[in-house]
Design brief:
Number of helices of chain C: 11
Radius of gyration of chain A: 24 Å
Chains: A mainly alpha (358), B alpha+beta (579), C mainly alpha (306)
Largest interface: A-B, 91 and 87 residues
Distance between the termini of chain A: 11 Å
Largest sheet of chain A: none
Number of strands of chain C: 2
Helix content of chain C: 55-70%
Structural class of chain C: mainly alpha
Strand order of the largest sheet of chain C: 1-2
Structural class of chain A: mainly alpha
Number of helices of chain A: 17
Strand content of chain C: under 5%
Distance between the termini of chain C: 23 Å
Radius of gyration of chain C: 24 Å
Strand content of chain A: under 5%
Largest sheet of chain C: 2 strands, antiparallel
Shape of chain A: globular
Oligomer: heterotrimer
Order of helices and strands of chain A: HHHHHHHHHHHHHHHHH
Number of strands of chain A: 0
């Protein structure tokens, strides 16, 4: 087991390096520069030359790359060219939002998708099966941005004035906000990594309001997350539902299930005790692998619903040529993706002894 | 995979990175707080305005001295300012190198909000200055949750009337439809720049109040005289006749927008001169001119633009296709070549475009703001400037007599029509939408609405949604309109605009005097001005506000980008600027 | 090319003799796949007959039409003196119906061309990688891993940002991003087949490795590739539409469904049909490909009990 783990971890290193190089190269290859973007029509050559010199952006690319790598090794992600904030503070502020959205979308997809799949598998080829699978197919075919627009239109405008109304954008209603965890729990003496960690969790609005007992904000934040979660989670939901169904159908056709039925076991026990546990393996794998789809969907969805997450930061910084922020966002998102895939691989190896012993 | 191969590989990588960190050149830009523990985001700081180093008691005991006065040795450095001095504790005098009739408008601009000299020193001219500002305006910053919203609360030490609302919340959303959705849903009290296609709908809605803003802008179709066939004046004149401006304005601009006859809009006096009109829409005449120029069958070219909504161009993609279709009618086959915003602007500025769509919004209400940048050589987009045009513009800009200026600008309009480096198409209006229940709504022609006078009965807060997020709160080093809308609420200015107009009224200064040839401007400040943390404001603060921008070698000349674009644009040059 | 099996009688059913015909037979038995085929058939006909069906030129600006006019269908009661526009006029004074029809043609073309490119390049890479093994395999797979490390849309956006906006660039970008999926499938199929007896036999007989690769191994790997290809077309269509939506794909005045959605995005209040129609059609097209792909997967899978 340990050898398996170490082997997979070592394979991670060249991949990470590749990600860094590609991100750096891609970011610099985009035409235009931060100065011209910032000044717009009012930009002149002379002004921008000076500006770029100051930022070190007129140096040869390899020099810039080495400089970037060296600061990265020291833990310094640089400063945003546009707003002069540290990239670390931007990430600490925005990443929790994207993670919250992803978690809720995944929860939605799993909590609705798995039962849907089970239902369809148990009532195979019946009307219920056909309908659920048809819905799943439609869900997987709809472009995320279209779904988001539809939902926003439906819930914010058409249902205006009804109790079903949902807010069309933003994370919290204007005027509400959370109190940082440092203040709530009197943790004013933290420095360094513990401070980073607490700040990170403090910026997860749902988590923060939950453990602070701030119920008004808690409810409000959940309400604002409903539409975005549904939008982002619909495609993974459809995939999970289909996977659950096919996996369960496969398992239900196996001999030992027939045996347990022949033994006279209650159907419910057969399904949930015996069949489902074995069907769980590919399901968990799929759930983990949906992360890529979720992150991509999050980027589009955050723009539609005006949520202050990593996705909006990425799009804005691409358009503003804010290289430090582009590099940091892309690398971090890819890193999360790689780590989750690794965890899924490892758990797959753990759950299925056949893989481990390869 | 053999473990043995990868272990040394990994070790090599580690050693390599250690070598890199030791040898690589240090970053040229030293950020303010780079490797510290990551900053707690400016979510809910305690009252952000810390008392500056100098305690107020001590200041009262010492006799007042002018600390920051600066004079240029002579006017040879090329800029407009000769000296800025604090004559006494409440009097500031600006001496200029040339006559400037627009000086008062220039200082009434968000970039010249009065900063606290002590706070500038404390922050080093950057860092906290950008995120936790200290101003003497009607509001102060309570919290700025990046990406989400800004909350402003009334400044208890403001000299003027307290704001009518207890909390001003500024939010943003790029999509006009999303902003409209919010105000219809009731979650916003005011939204900026609705889509022109929605104007009718908004006007028909009794719960909403649409207030149009006069358009101090120009949208034009530019031609690069350095590129064939636009080096031929007849060709340019032909294009000038081939554009049906009325159709464009009627179809793609909101009500109130005007087809453009000159480069400056009608309200920009004395730059706009009655009686000078552009060529009539005359496709037949255009074809004749093209034949005369040697293109009886027309020619092919590309039209560049960026798909970004601006006041002067609310529907870029649609207008580009319209222009393509209009030029096709006289035989000019245009390929539309949209570019990404940054790449496009760089390309235009470098003079690489053939035919291009662009525009300009007024920074201050004087024609020199429009003409000087475009036609005197600062911009390469049209190719080389025309000497006769340059002379006429310069003569008009620095003349103090209004009647003479009008005459001179008439000449400029005539020459530009003759040479036709561009075709003026439209002066766009846009609007701001308020809930019908808002009291004292205002539409500012310069898009700086003063929300302190507004309120909604029955609620303490006022929520405004604009199109983009502000970049920083140090207005002096920013250029973005969305930034100005927010930061100017926190600062005070020597003079400012009466709400809804372009008329200037006293603000931080009670009065001013100017000499006959408009080169010496003296302002008398209000005597009880204070910053939001209680420290008093006097002439030293005003002088320092300008000096840190003017003197390129000043240690506080840092800001966000260090460019101080508007200072450079308004006063030509900085002192001691590196070559 | 197929493996011949003898006519057999199973029960009273006559089983066709060719593997491909057999697969087709199973495909047609599945209802959802038939639905998918129907939809695709209809779309293909529309796409092929676009110049005939469309009533106007899709990119021509109609000088006399008012922007955002609602649909006018004479059969459904619209007065005769008004010009007939089945789907109304869009925001640029063009006939919307014609744009939608030509959009169908473009979407199908986009999907097929892009997948054709990705599948060929990806399969070759994966097959070579799996067949040759060793360091070549290692390097190619590492590169694929790095590409797969980026979330799909993110990488596509990044590549297009570099190449510049435009439909061709968007297609190139998506084609590149699709390659790793095909490479992986081809590689794993090749690896599993590589050790089989008939390959060893070929080697013993002295057949050149390239011939073995193309004549023996790849045909057996075809099944998952076909399925991936069909499903991939749907993904490609959505991705190109997403890129166009973000302003990075098709450029005006092209009649492509994604950009049509993007252009009219702010008209959601005054002319919602301009949004719903292209959105619905994208969903329908992708759905059809997904249903077909699922059906193919089941039909071509020899393991399922028949």
């Amino acid at each position: 087991m340990l050898r398996f783990l170490v082997r997979r971890l070592i394979l991670l290193v060249p991949v990470l390096l590749g990600i860094l190089i590609i991100t750096f190269a891609l970011a610099r290859m985009i035409p235009g520069d931060p100065c011209t973007i910032a000044l717009g029509e009012h930009a002149t050559q002379a002004v921008c030359d000076k500006y770029l010199d100051r930022m070190g952006l007129n140096d040869p690319l390899p020099t810039q790359f080495l400089r970037y790598m060296s600061s990265l090794v020291r833990g310094d992600l640089g400063n945003s060219i546009r707003t002069n904030e540290t990239v670390t503070s931007i990430v600490l502020l925005r990443m929790p939002m994207t993670i919250e959205l992803t978690i809720f979308a995944l929860l939605f997809a799993t909590i609705v998708g798995v039962p849907m799949g089970i239902l369809a598998a148990l009532r195979r080829n019946s009307f219920v099966d056909v309908v659920t699978m048809a819905l799943a197919n439609v869900g997987v075919s709809m472009p995320v941005f279209f779904l988001g627009l539809l939902l926003a239109y439906l819930f914010a405008l058409v249902l205006k004035g009804t109790p079903f109304w949902l807010p069309p954008s933003a994370r919290l209603t204007s005027g509400l906000s959370t109190v940082p965890l440092m203040e709530t729990f009197n943790l004013t003496n933290l420095r360094g990594f513990p401070l980073t960690l607490v700040t990170f969790f403090s910026n997860m609005v749902v988590f923060n309001s939950l453990i602070s007992g701030n119920w008004k904000v808690f409810g409000d934040s959940l309400r604002h997350l409903i539409l975005p979660s549904i939008t982002v989670g619909t495609i993974p939901l459809a995939i999970i539902a289909r996977m659950t169904r096919s996996s369960l159908v496969d398992v239900l056709g196996l001999d030992y299930i027939r045996t347990s039925r022949a033994k006279g076991l209650k159907e419910r026990l057969v399904v949930f005790r015996h069949a489902f546990r074995n069907a769980l393996l590919p399901i968990t794998t799929i759930v983990g692998l949906q992360l890529g789809s979720l992150l991509g969907g999050a980027i589009l969805t955050e723009t539609i619903f005006g949520l202050p997450g990593m996705g909006t930061v990425l799009v804005t910084s691409i358009f503003a040529r804010d290289y430090p922020v582009i590099q940091a966002s892309v690398v971090l998102i890819a890193l999360i993706f790689v780590v989750v895939n690794l965890l899924v691989d490892i758990s797959y190896g753990y759950l299925d002894p056949r893989i481990r012993l390869q | 995979m053999k473990r043995r191969i990868f272990l040394p590989f990994v070790i090599t990588l580690l050693i390599l990175s250690m070598i890199l960190s030791a040898c690589a050149p240090a970053a040229t830009k030293a950020p303010a707080a780079a490797t510290e523990a990551p900053a707690v985001p400016t979510e809910a700081p305690a009252v952000p305005t810390e008392a500056p180093a100098v305690p107020t008691k001590a200041a009262e005991l010492q006799p007042w001295t002018a600390k920051y006065n600066l004079s240029a040795p002579d006017c040879a450095y090329g800029g407009e300012l000769k000296s800025i001095e604090a004559v006494d504790q409440y009097t500031v005098k600006f001496t200029l190198c040339n006559s400037d009739p627009a000086f008062l408008s220039k200082v009434a601009f968000p970039a010249f909000g009065i900063q606290s000299a002590d706070y500038l020193v404390k922050t080093g001219g950057t860092g906290d200055l950008l995120s936790t500002p200290l101003g003497s305006g009607p509001y102060m910053l309570k919290e700025w949750v990046r990406g989400d919203h800004i909350t402003l609360v009334p400044n208890p030490n403001y000299w003027g009337p307290a704001p009518m609302n207890k909390e001003l919340i500024i939010r943003w959303n790029k999509e006009a439809a999303a902003r409209l959705l919010e105000i219809q849903a009731g979650t916003a009290d005011a939204i900026d720049t609705p889509s022109p296609d929605d104007f009718e709908k908004i006007m028909a809605d009794p719960t909403l109040n649409l207030m149009p803003r006069k358009g101090l802008n120009i949208f034009y179709l530019g031609m690069n005289t350095a590129m064939k066939p636009f080096d031929n004046e007849l060709v340019r004149q032909a294009v000038a006749m081939a554009i049906d401006k009325k159709r464009i304005v009627d179809n793609y601009y909101p009500n109130g927008s005007l087809p453009a006859e000159q480069f400056v809009p009608p309200s920009m006096l004395p730059g706009y001169v009655e009686g000078y009109k552009w060529y009539d829409y005359d496709p037949e005449g255009a074809k004749k001119l093209l034949a005369e120029a040697g293109f009886p069958d027309g020619f092919e070219t590309t039209l560049g633009y960026r798909d970004v909504v601006r006041v002067y161009l609310p529907l870029p993609g649609k207008v580009a296709q319209e222009i393509q279709s209009q030029l096709a009618q006289v035989g000019i086959k245009v390929t539309i070549a949209p570019m990404e915003s940054g790449a496009y602007l760089a390309s235009v500025a470098a003079g690489e475009q053939y035919l291009f769509m662009n525009g300009w919004g007024a920074d201050y209400p004087d024609p020199s703001n429009f003409y000087d940048f475009h036609f005197t050589g600062a911009s390469k987009s049209f190719g080389d400037p025309f000497p006769d045009v340059v002379d006429a513009i310069r003569a008009a800009a620095y003349n103090s007599d209004t009647a003479q200026r009008t005459q001179l600008y008439g000449k400029v309009a005539e020459l530009i029509k003759l040479h036709a480096p561009m075709v003026p198409i439209a002066h766009g209006t846009n609007a701001i939408v308020y809930k019908a229940s808002v009291l004292n709504p205002e539409a500012s022609p310069l898009q700086d609405e003063q929300f302190q006078y507004m309120s909604v009965p029955g609620q303490d807060q006022f929520v405004q949604i604009q199109a983009g997020e502000p970049i920083s709160m140090y207005c002096s080093d920013e250029t973005d309109g969305e930034t100005f809308r927010a930061c100017f609420q926190i600062f005070d200015f020597l003079y400012w605009y009466k709400p809804g107009t372009t008329e200037l009224v006293p603000s931080a200064a009670e009065s001013y005097t100017v000499n006959d040839d408009l080169t010496e401007w003296t302002f008398k400040l209000r005597q009880n001005n204070k910053f939001s943390d209680g420290t008093p404001m006097d002439s030293n603060d005003v002088v320092q506000t300008f000096v840190v921008q003017w003197d390129a070698t000043n240690p506080l000349h840092v800001g966000n980008t260090g460019v101080f674009e508007y200072f450079g644009g308004y006063f030509s040059k900085m002192l001691n600027a590196p070559e | 090319m197929g493996i011949e099996i003898e006519d057999a009688k199973i029960g009273s059913k006559q089983v066709p003799s060719n593997v491909w015909l057999e697969a087709l037979h199973h495909l047609l038995e599945k209802r959802s796949a038939v639905v998918g085929l129907f939809i695709l058939g209809a779309l293909t006909i529309v796409a092929l007959l676009a110049p005939i069906i469309a009533t106007y030129d899709p990119i021509e600006i109609l000088r006399d039409a008012k922007r955002n006019t609602p649909p006018c269908i004479h059969l459904l009661g619209c007065p005769e003196d008004q010009p007939e526009h089945y789907f109304g006029i869009d925001g640029n004074s063009r006939d919307f119906f014609s744009r939608v029809i030509y959009g169908a043609r473009l979407s199908l073309l986009i999907g097929i061309v892009t997948i054709a490119f990705s599948s060929v390049v990806g399969t070759l890479l994966g097959a070579v990688s799996g067949f040759v093994g060793g360091w070549t395999d290692n390097i190619i797979m590492r590169i694929m891993d790095v590409m797969l490390a980026f979330p799909y849309l993110l990488l596509a956006i990044a590549v297009v940002a570099v190449l510049g906006p435009g439909l061709i660039n968007a297609l190139v970008s998506i084609a590149i991003v699709e390659i790793p999926a095909f490479a992986r499938i081809a590689r794993s199929s090749v690896i599993s087949v590589k050790e089989m007896d008939f390959v060893t036999a070929d080697r013993a007989l002295g057949v050149s490795p390239v011939r073995t690769l193309f004549r023996r191994i790849l045909p057996n790997a075809l099944t998952p590739l076909i399925v991936q290809g069909t499903l991939g077309i749907g993904t490609v269509i959505i991705s190109v539409a997403s890129l166009s939506f973000l302003g990075l794909g098709a450029q005006p005045p092209t009649a492509e469904w994604g950009i049509m959605l993007s252009e009219e995005r702010n008209n959601i209040f005054n002319a919602p049909h301009l949004l719903f129609i292209p959105g619905f059609l994208i969903t329908l097209t992708v759905l059809a490909f997904n249903l077909l792909g699922d059906g193919l997967r089941d039909a071509l899978d020899p393991r399922l009990n028949r």
